[in-house]
Each structure stands twice: as C-alpha cells, then as structure tokens.
C-alpha cells in the first residue's frame, strides 16, 4: 500500500495539465464574442495608442521660466497730480517683470498726508459718536485709519459726530473716478517670454520664434494663428476673456494666462507648440460681485524743509496678470507599450469570461452547454495505477479489463 502511494506521488510530478476547450456552435454568443474583441481592439488602437499615445513614456515634471515686460505711456491731468506722464516705472508693479505682474489703470490719490489729529471718516463702522465716552482714548478702529483720542467731534447742527483720531491726516478719500484714469492702457503691450525644459528627456524650448530678424518682436502681435509671437495688446488680451477693458479698468480684476505645452518628442521639436488660454479669475461665479475687482494701497514718502515727514497715499485699481505654465512631454518607450498591450490581452480574457456567463446562465439551452463545459468524473472502487512499468510491462492506468476510448464528438441537433 505504501509502495503504491509512493509510486503515484513519484510519477505525478511529471504530469502536465492543460485546459480543455469546448467549441460552441452558437451564432449569437459567437457574434457577441467577436463584438467584444472588436471593441477591445478599437480601444487599444484608437484610444490607447492614437489618442493617449500609450506607447510613450510621459513626463509632467516641467521647469519653466517667465519674463514679462510692458511698454506704453499715458498722459493725465488731475487736480491732485496735475499734469503727469505715466511710463512703465509708474504703472507696472513689480517693475522687474515676473510671472505675476500688476498694471495700474485707476487710482484715488490723497496728497500731503501728515501724522496729526483729525476726524475719522463717517463711512467707517464704529466711527460715529454722540459724546466723548463713545471714543475711548487709545482704542484703534480696526477698519479705520487711526487711534481714537477720546474726543467726539460734533458736526454743526447735528446731534452726532465722528471720533477724533491720531492718524495720517487728512484721511483717505472715499470717492473714486467714474472713468479709469489710465484708460489709454488698452493700447499698451506686454511681452511674455516663456522658456520650458523637460529634464527627463533633456528637451527645452521657448515660445519666441527663433529668427535672426531683429525687427520681428517690434512689429509682430499675438494671434491664435501666431503662437510664436509673445507680444500681447492689453485690450485684445482682456477681450479674450469675454470682458471689456474700460469696464474692467475702472475697478480692476485678475486675469489668468495659461500656457500649455503638449510635446510629442517622437515627431520632433516642431510638434511642441505653446497653447494659450485666457480667463478672468476674480469674478468666476458672478458677473457682479462684491469680491470682484482688484486694488491695494501704497504711499510715497517725502520730507519738507523742516524735516517733517509727509506722504502721498495712492489706492490703485488695476489688472493683475497671473501667468500659469504646465505641460507634458512623451517619447517612445517599450515598457509602457508592453504594459498597455498586456492590459488589452487581459481584457480579451474578460470578454471570454463574460461570454461564458451568457452561455451557461442566460440563454435557453444553458443547462446543455453547462454539462459540456463542466465534465464530472467519478472514480470506481478499483485503484488506478500511474502509467509506468509494472513487472516489466507498461500499465495504462485504467481499471483491469478496460481499454482507452477514442475521441468522442458531440454534435448539437
């Protein structure tokens, strides 16, 4: 008995097991299987390889440099500033040019401010008072301009007034121009140079046309058909966002300039072109919103003949430009190609599994096909021996007195 088990285990090590294939003559299931195979093939060739370029190694690690430069002059004549010529040193902040820059289009000027005592603006919450006790000395008005002195300055003929404060006086003006001060900025131009590099592929490129013509940048202007001219007219640039420049210049705004690089390095550097898109960012969810617009304050400081400091306060409105750069590059690599082909082959197996489910569970003769696919084998009480030499003769491994049968073919009627 022990010798029999040992020999059975010994010879079973050399067994080879293979799958049994059942050919089903069913047109509906056969058609379904071919359609699944065709869909997977179309997905592999059309979507994976042609659209997504699944045979490429893709890198999104982009290194980018942005240089901006604005050109244009404007002339204004106001009661606060008198006659004045504005150039890039006056209306561009910061002046050195970065991927975020601001162009002044409107401003409120409060000249000759000195640190002294004056009345707080009546438009400031918490500035109104009826008596001195309403203005505690030393208390700062958070949204105001200074610190309370403890005195309530009553207006003539009124029962209320405003608290006296120690601040830069006179306080900032509230009213603003009804028309943008620098409306002529619509004709200013901005030069946006973008240089990108994909270190994984050692590839770099710029959005400026490579030419020896020195006059190219002096006369060219950006257009949807000319992506290698980085000179933008401000009015045209704002119009790309669907906004009017004069209306936007009154209270300011924020515009995003998106530069997208999609580089197919298998086709060479010429296939790597910058794609531009423009969007207004400060009023994305509503046309009229309290959060729309863009402004901030800064001051210029001076000293008079007596050495006393004074300043000119400016609340500036304008357009802030955010230059955003991203991209990807792809180049042929055998590894992603093999992975995608292997995935598609696995999907073929999933198609066969789905057809098996339809065949043995969903169609009318499913029980018939189930019996053909899953064969049940019952062992007799007699013992089987492995195919080996027993007493010098070859044993078939079948019970005594039985012979191997030939192939049996079952045909569905």
UniProtKB/TrEMBL annotation:
GO terms for MF: ATP binding; extracellularly ATP-gated monoatomic cation channel activity; ligand-gated monoatomic anion channel activity; purinergic nucleotide receptor activity
InterPro entries, sorted: P2X5_purnocptor, P2X_extracellular_dom_sf, P2X_purnocptor, P2X_receptor, P2X_RECEPTOR_CS
Keyword match Zinc-finger: no
Gene Ontology CC, one term: plasma membrane
Record's keyword annotation contains Transmembrane: yes
PROSITE patterns: P2X_RECEPTOR
Entry's localization field: Cell membrane; Membrane
TM stretches of this protein: 31-50, 341-363
Entry keyword set: ATP-binding, Cell membrane, Disulfide bond, Glycoprotein, Ion channel, Ion transport, Ligand-gated ion channel, Membrane, Nucleotide-binding, Receptor, Transmembrane, Transmembrane helix, Transport
Membrane topology qualifier: Multi-pass membrane protein
Gene Ontology BP annotations: calcium ion transmembrane transport; chloride transport; osteoclast maturation; response to ATP
A Pfam cross-reference name: P2X_receptor
Binding site for ATP: 69-71, 189, 295-297, 315
Catalytic activity: Ca(2+)(in) = Ca(2+)(out)
Domain of life of the organism encoding this protein: Eukaryota
Disulphide bonds in the chain: 118-169, 129-152, 135-163, 220-229, 263-272
Oligomer and partners: Functional P2XRs are organized as homomeric and heteromeric trimers. Homotrimer. Forms heterotrimer with P2RX1.
Functional note: Receptor for ATP that acts as a ligand-gated ion channel.
NCBIfam families: P2X
Family note: Belongs to the P2X receptor family.
Name recorded for this polypeptide: P2X purinoceptor
Originating species: Vombatus ursinus (Common wombat)
